Amino acid sequence: MFNIALFGAGRIGQVHAANIANHKETCLYSVIDPNPESAESLARKYQTKVQAIEQAISDPEVHGVLIASATDTHADLIELAAKHHKKIFCEKPVHLDIERVHHCLETVKQYQVPLFIGFNRRYDPQFRRLKTLFDTGTIGKAESLLITSRDPSPPSAEYVKVSGGMFRDMTIHDFDMARFIIGEEPCSIYAQGSNLVDPAIGQAGDIDTAFIIMKFPSGAMAAITNSRRSGYGYDQRIELHGEKGLLSAGNIKENSVELWENTGCLAARPEHFFLQRYREAYIAEWDHFVNVMADRATPECSGFDGEQALYLADKALESLHSGKEIKL
Amino acid sequence: MFNIALFGAGRIGQVHAANIANHKETCLYSVIDPNPESAESLARKYQTKVQAIEQAISDPEVHGVLIASATDTHADLIELAAKHHKKIFCEKPVHLDIERVHHCLETVKQYQVPLFIGFNRRYDPQFRRLKTLFDTGTIGKAESLLITSRDPSPPSAEYVKVSGGMFRDMTIHDFDMARFIIGEEPCSIYAQGSNLVDPAIGQAGDIDTAFIIMKFPSGAMAAITNSRRSGYGYDQRIELHGEKGLLSAGNIKENSVELWENTGCLAARPEHFFLQRYREAYIAEWDHFVNVMADRATPECSGFDGEQALYLADKALESLHSGKEIKL
Amino acid sequence: MFNIALFGAGRIGQVHAANIANHKETCLYSVIDPNPESAESLARKYQTKVQAIEQAISDPEVHGVLIASATDTHADLIELAAKHHKKIFCEKPVHLDIERVHHCLETVKQYQVPLFIGFNRRYDPQFRRLKTLFDTGTIGKAESLLITSRDPSPPSAEYVKVSGGMFRDMTIHDFDMARFIIGEEPCSIYAQGSNLVDPAIGQAGDIDTAFIIMKFPSGAMAAITNSRRSGYGYDQRIELHGEKGLLSAGNIKENSVELWENTGCLAARPEHFFLQRYREAYIAEWDHFVNVMADRATPECSGFDGEQALYLADKALESLHSGKEIKL
Amino acid sequence: MFNIALFGAGRIGQVHAANIANHKETCLYSVIDPNPESAESLARKYQTKVQAIEQAISDPEVHGVLIASATDTHADLIELAAKHHKKIFCEKPVHLDIERVHHCLETVKQYQVPLFIGFNRRYDPQFRRLKTLFDTGTIGKAESLLITSRDPSPPSAEYVKVSGGMFRDMTIHDFDMARFIIGEEPCSIYAQGSNLVDPAIGQAGDIDTAFIIMKFPSGAMAAITNSRRSGYGYDQRIELHGEKGLLSAGNIKENSVELWENTGCLAARPEHFFLQRYREAYIAEWDHFVNVMADRATPECSGFDGEQALYLADKALESLHSGKEIKL
């Protein structure tokens, strides 16, 4: 049984708290959050305790940490945990500044602790199945990858201001997915974007609609299309075209009920947002991290993966601002 | 080039007129209809002539007749055509009275002319493909056949009164389809029905909603579900369950456009009615009859098939009235 | 927190054990099973104890019992639990003999304890949604109900022999579903069946393929089609046709990945069997029973519902054997 | 009745011949082709005559010309026809060299004859319906347009060599579609491409897999993904995301039959290629041109549209070669 200290009692922290508590090999040992009420409320729910950062990080009973706190605390917490030889699960991103990420990963390397970055979509059963079928040669070599990722509705302008921008906040998942599926590092990137959904996002210096094209050394190409608003739920689809055909992973609908009437056949929307769509992915990634803690596996999604995805986000931004394809 | 005399210039006669004219081996030679205006209008459209019954039937230039006139004229016209050695395509049914059908088929037999009964659905590309896949062993032996047949909206009470009743008018197609797919004659039949759609249909002594179960000597069973009104277009589906799996033939939608919005994903309705859904079937059955006229084939759908489907309709009615399963 | 004694540590007992343990208002207090190893294994998993029947039933700490033991023990256990004023959740059926059911329900009535019968499908989110949309008038009055229920593969002949026959064992769920959806008691029933899947089932005196038609006082009709083997997973679909259109609840596929290649577009099978398909239904029905225990609800699915479904199964068998429609 | 001289008796000429002959207001007057056998075979089929270019173009009986000959003859024939005041339907492209196109259109303007360019996909009922629903405000303002266009299998290297390259030959349809749907001229374009399908295509200096991003003045963006080979038929899909939701036009499947078995649910492929998928589009565009000839309409798809699509193809090529986004 591994005791886990959970940093962050917000929305995503609550998802992880449930998965930690439900896993037969892990126990929610403590909750750490700058907001005492949030921390205590979550701790109470799982009949566990609240700790301060230093207390948790130096507690010899703590085997692993799950960092789901504010983005700007990730790198510091990772380093602190590494120095205390805790095994680390950290939500993406490590940091919004790639230099800081690089320095942080050096520290992790020095202390030789496993670090898993929570790119949850790699554990979505649909995308995982697509990847497995591709890896077993079902469609031959990869040629074209199309990633559709659209949120149901835009975040607040306040969130946008501290998010690091659309590429580092939202598209970063898709950059990781493209690397994961194709299994190569891209050699060029081009990004185009618009502010169409909410003028406040534009005023905050960001875009809300983005198209990206990447090319890989094998000649395969990937297109990512993003929007901060779909109008119909969370749109998460992948198409991978290969020599012999297409593998596609479609949306999961809210239910299987259809209404057929004079105006047409009405089916359910895609599941609303990431808490619904990626519920199983969060459970599966936690199970993987338990295997890492138990030395049955090494992190499938490492600090390097986190750094590379951020690097692509930075380069996409450079392309957007320069109007040029960037060689990588 | 075969010259065809067309009896009946109504809705279904017009469908056949186009197919006769468009077929490279047939020519619409003349149109016969008790309503002179209808006959002339159709003849004018195809730059051909109007004839009287006797004139057409005895015209040595006429190679084949297509009987799409009122139901109660079919048997007389078949006999007349047989006596003049014309090849005969007749819309279903031969007659609403099975004794009359039997007598008519005797006459046809005597004059040794080919008679094709237009059970158009056998030529629907979807159902034909299902049948072909079944015949080639795709799902092994047949176990359960489910036929769904629902009209978009009910006919007038006037039509109902002369229709011979729901089983002889509408379900007859499904009886033929069940025989066609399974390839056996059923050994029992049970029918249940209701008047739910339009009280006027009930007042005319008929039902508008029907469920039928038939059993075949091999143990396979068929269920037919009918309604005079779907509310969403023409619902024409078949499911055939066999030892190894299921073959299903779904509806054809009006188009492939979908609208995804907050209330759900809206797709198109099924095609509206038989003129749309079975357009290709009418063309294909005519092509088969041309092969019959050219001695390249014998009628796949014969007078016997017409008689058997009517027999099942009669027995379904007997079951409905008696509340008993009828042994055949 | 309600303490629950679980009778039966088999496949379905294990499903309930997890749901009891995971529910925030219930606790798995003890496990009772004639096989000591099964009982101990399950108790160990949830860190709880094993009890004997009498011990559990008379334990004042036990608030509710969940009966998931062998079918022939249900009625006895219900009566025992009622006499000790325990609240009762019992898997279907109460008993295979309707007289015994009737007597058992009398006892329950006498002791005034709530009894919930686990017709799990009523809690399937798909069917529940269909029912809710129907109840809110989406399609107007019900006209035709089509229930498709096919198991992935047949049970052993040993199971068949003690199952009470296909109607009491399998179709009973569909009888309940028809009553639940339509909201009326049927007034006639007709059943037809075959032994097509496995000769051993026929030798055990049972059928493995069944078609049933029921008529309701409003004129609405229901057709149930069953098979002990689909060849493609668990086929659980409902179509409800009303005045204004159709509500359909389709299968849930194992995943959303498709492979498009030269031979066609391959999608996933329906989920394999009831453990997968009705996972959420088992959770939801348990949540309902917790509401019953907490006096926030009365059993939506009562002993009477269990009795009526069995009555329809008995009458279906009478119809099958007599070849007649049975008036109810 | 308009008499039509058809230039080109090849694959696409034969499609048009049938549509000309079947239209109630047009008559296939003559066929012109450098290959006498092809010309005569087609003329014989429609019981019409063969003409030489000059003969047809100066024949006072000819009301309109349909140019479906080799690409490099289009501009010359258009000019010749314009000078003889014939109404002109020309297959895309006018010419592969944009200067030549420009000069040709000047001539057409001078002689004031209507010129329709056959971008057939604008007349596909699916895409047309999507466009209509968008124009009527169904999803609000356009934000993202995704065009998928994949051929079933690659052309020969010989064809590739004279095709003008993938952008001018294949993507040109998608450039036109993007302009048609969005209703604006793009202000920037970026193209990326690979040679993955057939090395011979690369040796001929061309690509076979392409991704293009365009931005429009309103901020809307379009992504086009192309391949010379899908492995599963002709993949022709459009997604248009707007403020309120998504309009998508999916593929048309070869049939509606599905096979459900243990390995999954197999549905039909998309229709094989343009002759099948765009059969109705060819008929509809011809009907539009008949309206143009009868002065009931002006060309919806003009020489200017042909020029603009070619311009975008040229700029895409410039982007591909320079690795830069091109401002338009």
From TrEMBL, chains A, B, C, D:
Superkingdom of origin organism: Bacteria
Keywords attached to this entry: Oxidoreductase
Annotated ranges, domain GFO/IDH/MocA-like oxidoreductase: 127-247
InterPro entries: Gfo/Idh/MocA-like_OxRdtase_N, GFO_IDH_MocA-like_dom, Myo_inos_IolG, NAD(P)-bd_dom_sf
Domain Gfo/Idh/MocA-like oxidoreductase N-terminal per the UniProt entry, residue ranges: 2-119
A UniProt-annotated Pfam family: GFO_IDH_MocA
Hydrolase in keyword set: no
MF annotations from Gene Ontology: nucleotide binding; oxidoreductase activity
Family: Belongs to the Gfo/Idh/MocA family.
Protein name: Inositol 2-dehydrogenase
Species of origin: Photorhabdus temperata J3
Phylogenetic placement of the source organism: Bacteria, Pseudomonadati, Pseudomonadota, Gammaproteobacteria, Enterobacterales
